[in-house]
Amino acid sequence: MASSFELTRNITVGQYLPTGSIIHRLDPRCKLAAFVILILGIAFCGTYGSNVLALILCTALFPLARIPIRYGLSGVKPAIPFILILAILQLLFYGKGFGTGGQTYFHYGFVTITSDSLRLVVVSAMRFVEVIFLSSVLTLSTSTTELTHGMEHLLMPLRKVGFPVHAFALIITIAVRFVPTFALEMEKMMKAQASRGAEFGTGSWWRIVQRTKDMFPIIIPLFNVALKRAEDLILAMEARCYTPTDERTTYKRYHASAKDVFAVVTSLVIVAVLFAIPV
Amino acid sequence: MSDEREPLIRVEHVSFGYTMNDKRTLPVLRDISFEVRRGEYLAIIGHNGSGKSTLAKHLNGLLVPQQGNVWVAGMNTKDKGLRKEIRKCVGMVFQHPDNQIVATIVEDDVAFGLENIGVPADEMRQRVDEALQMVGMFAFRHRPPHHLSGGQKQRIAISGILAMRPACIVLDEATSMLDSYGRQDILRVMRALHQQGMTIVTVTHHMSEVVEADRVIVMEAGRIVMEGTPRDVFQQQERLHELQLDIPDASRISQAVHRVVPAFSGTLIRTDEVVEEVENMHLRTLEVHGG
Hints:
Largest sheet of chain B: 6 strands, mixed
Strand content of chain B: 15-25%
Largest sheet of chain A: 2 strands, antiparallel
Oligomer: heterodimer
Number of helices of chain A: 10
Largest interface: A-B, 32 and 42 residues
CATH topology of the largest domain in chain B: Rossmann fold
């Protein structure tokens, strides 16, 4: 019971595991770029062979980053129901519309299972796992600060079309900055309410409406607190000369070295290989 | 632009009120005038609702007077174009340690103000390191701020201001959310900065902080009701009591003893002064008895 109030311990966003591996030491811009390339590659290659290879490579990232594989698996665990439901739906309905090619294994009423639709099912389940592994390695090996800096740099070209990159990065930084603060605040309020007899998380999980209602006494004061904090923060930012429209300089500077370029090139090569695998 | 003998901040006949929902204005400051001299340590005290925080926000143009003028190093805070210069000159530390830290890493937060005023990256690194060393938080520069104590967070906020190299720091009840260790920490930092020539304005209702100041302004219902050195102000015990302000223990004890033992000074305000006075009295008695 006590642990259900300790929200700060349950936050997985930005759960950074500093092991100092080669993956950790990559330039965040290059790491993020390589990540995007690999995700796109995985999203578009649809053969058994390429996905088996991709799964092996994604698993291999864990020892390379010196992160225990169980971190990746614990990310997959909550996704299993989604993967299963998706697989069942795809198996039932894909045979008709998308995967009409190949051999027909089973046909009854509106359900048609072909070799193509079966491949789609297996491949999309594998993709799920690959993407979770990849993003786990990314977030476990990169601090949120590095991630936002990396993103800010990668988005820089968008400034040419008038996209407020600095402001966008600042919004994300502030959001991340206040996650633990609000978690603590919420913890405090839950304890205060619980000490006066309110119950949280004791209703059965299928009584979603009731459980949502239970949260109202927390959510509304939390909003109140958030607005107050926002007001203070604006004053503090203004006092430190923040003007959204003005030209700013940036403190953090990154220098991409050979190994960072190598990482991006490697990811491109991997994607090329994935596409080249015929079956 | 500014003469060295000219006061750093000049507040001239300032009045200010908040507009309520029903269009009435609630007067908060009524015809306030005072000066902040270069290099001085000024304390503004008053109980809740006396207008002291509103006054503090006038000192760097966060609020602009409805009547009267505030001049910072010769610049009027009503001039929108000078606002950045004014805020570079007068930095402000706020009450809540959590609500003024912007970044996820300590050194990034200290750099925030510098990024805003367009300091080049190389100079920025040097200034951030310097500012963190001044408040003794250099070792924490790569830490996320939410793992720090309240006092440490306030020191980060102060170093974020110091990095901008202001002429004056305004502390708007910056110690009121801290425990006594945190408060001592901040007071130590402020004392060191003052010795290096920084102008300091502290808004507080803790009398122990007022003792540190060169000059005190006491506020009540939007007006300045008393002004002087801490020693002078603390002498007027009844007046302070009327204003619901308590005086430091050392001062109370000194006055209580003085009433019974007239030889004992009644104008002491710090603990160490009381100890010294007792020591002196003791020595004098020894001399009398010995002689």
